[in-house]
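Case study 2.
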Amino acid sequence: MKRRPHARLRHRLYRRLHPRVYRAGALAEQRHPLDGPLDYTRTDVSAAPSMAAAKERLGIPPVVVLCGSTRFWERMAAAAWSETLRGRIVVRPDVDMKRPRQGYADAVAVKTDLDALHRAKIRLADEVLVVGDYIGDSTRAEIAYARELGMPVRFTHPEVDAPAPASALEGAAS
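Prediction:
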């Protein structure tokens, strides 16, 4: 079966941008990342210093990830607006599990996947902004995870900053 020209170009570009995936050995058995599910659970952050240097060389503004309960959806939008006007790239949750929609049958599995994706967003960011005056278990675990990575954490309501229980730290490591 013949590949379409745009598929060849996509693979050629991806091979140039991500040579590690195409080298011989264990990684050669992996499927192409654009053709299969991505693994958002990786916690290898050894590339963080080189990523920070690359961002600086490219003139990429600081990246801020918003954390907090999705019950504060409007506050998150306001915080994103404010941070964007300050010249920062804003990354935030895009799925509100408090107001479920059609399209997924297993809400628990979706929540687990979204939590893993949000941890990837935290690893990508330069700092975390916690929005709202309530911190639930998920947000507390995200704060603990960011602090474990040595990332600065800011709060829209500083009075809610409290030490995380040991169970939240265990959840952040998984």
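The first strand starts at residue 63 and ends at 67.
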